[in-house]
User: Which sequence fits this backbone?
């Protein structure tokens, strides 16, 4: 089967940073599905894993953690899907990614593809939807099933990216007032289009900007960009007993003491935790992806695809990685069709 991978970790401008490969078609065992890949989406995790480093792989490293496709074969322990089912998923960071014609994925972290979307639009959703869902409804403890959030506010830092694009929509659906950060005209317009109530610039101090829109503090913060850079700003504007969630790791320790007097909760979100540690509740990602699909099909959520490339090969994926590395993308970049 065709696949795209790497042996060396190089700059994306280098022709060997991602190369075309021919690999054996895998065989599903246990709870694995063999999926015929139709479309894949590029995420920051792809860029981080591929980033230059002094390491050479003896076997090809396959990236790609956003897939939409069709079940070709189900492992003997599978009960959720059968051949012919259309699925979407993010997969596991500890296994080969989905940048291949056929891909193995555990059915417990796989969802039924939204019926109203084609494969490209569906592929834009899984990783960001899982991340946003877990961050809002598990890590921050927000509920979709009460009306208590009418007077509460969330600040989403880096709202124009893939996760932010979904988080805005889910937070609005939960009843929150959403303040998103954006810095360019095109990203500002995108954040408005997705339903943010207010927009501030993350390159400037938060508190004065919030005061201009009549907000003294926020109950929730979802940080999707440079946790350390925004740490003092977040500590200043979070409400007493508020909650902060971030998805961006830091090289240096964070000063948690800044949160003490307000009794603020800080929590990390990493959507690969369940698959990485094979947690007993892995099935939750299957369930939430199915719920996201229902929200998409009912018109409550929209896909966040903004750039569509073809075909799926090394040259196209190098272009997609370069777009993400530019730091100027909004929404998601999707590559489709082998």
Assistant:
């Amino acid at each position: 089967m065709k696949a795209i991978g790497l042996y060396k970790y190089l700059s994306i401008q280098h022709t060997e940073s991602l190369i075309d490969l021919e690999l054996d078609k895998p065989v599903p065992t246990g709870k694995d599905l063999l999926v015929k890949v139709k479309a894949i989406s590029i995420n920051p995790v792809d860029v981080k894993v591929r980033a230059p480093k002094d390491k050479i792989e003896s076997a090809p490293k396959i990236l790609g953690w956003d897939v939409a496709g069709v079940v070709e074969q189900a492992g003997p322990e599978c009960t959720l899907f059968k051949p012919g089912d259309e699925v979407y998923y993010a997969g596991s960071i500890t296994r080969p990614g989905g940048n291949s014609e056929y891909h193995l994925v555990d059915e417990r972290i796989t969802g039924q593809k939204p019926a109203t979307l084609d494969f490209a639009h569906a592929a834009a959703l899984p990783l960001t939807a899982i991340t946003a869902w877990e961050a809002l409804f598990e890590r921050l403890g927000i509920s979709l099933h009460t009306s208590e959030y009418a007077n509460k506010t969330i600040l989403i830092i880096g709202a124009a990216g893939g996760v932010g694009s979904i988080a805005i929509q889910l937070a609005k659906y939960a009843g929150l007032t959403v303040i998103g950060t954006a810095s360019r005209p095109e990203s500002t317009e995108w954040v408005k289009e997705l339903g943010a109530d207010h927009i501030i610039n993350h390159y400037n101090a938060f508190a004065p900007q919030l005061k201009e829109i009549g907000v003294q503090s926020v109950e929730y913060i979802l940080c999707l960009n440079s946790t350390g850079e925004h740490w003092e700003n977040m500590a200043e504007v979070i409400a007493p007993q508020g909650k902060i969630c971030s998805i961006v790791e830091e090289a240096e320790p964070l000063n948690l003491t800044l949160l003490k007097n307000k009794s603020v909760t800080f929590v990390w979100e990493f959507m690969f935790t369940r698959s990485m540690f094979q947690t007993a509740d892995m099935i939750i990602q299957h369930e939430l992806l199915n719920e996201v699909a229902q929200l998409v099909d009912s018109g409550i959520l929209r896909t966040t695809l903004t750039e569509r490339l073809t075909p799926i090969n090394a040259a196209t994926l190098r272009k997609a990685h370069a777009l993400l590395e530019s730091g100027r993308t909004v929404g998601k970049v999707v590559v489709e069709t082998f």
Remarks:
- The mean pLDDT is 96.
- DSSP finds ten helices and 16 strands in the chain.
- The two ends are 10 Å apart (CA to CA).
- Residues 283-297 form the longest helix (15 residues).
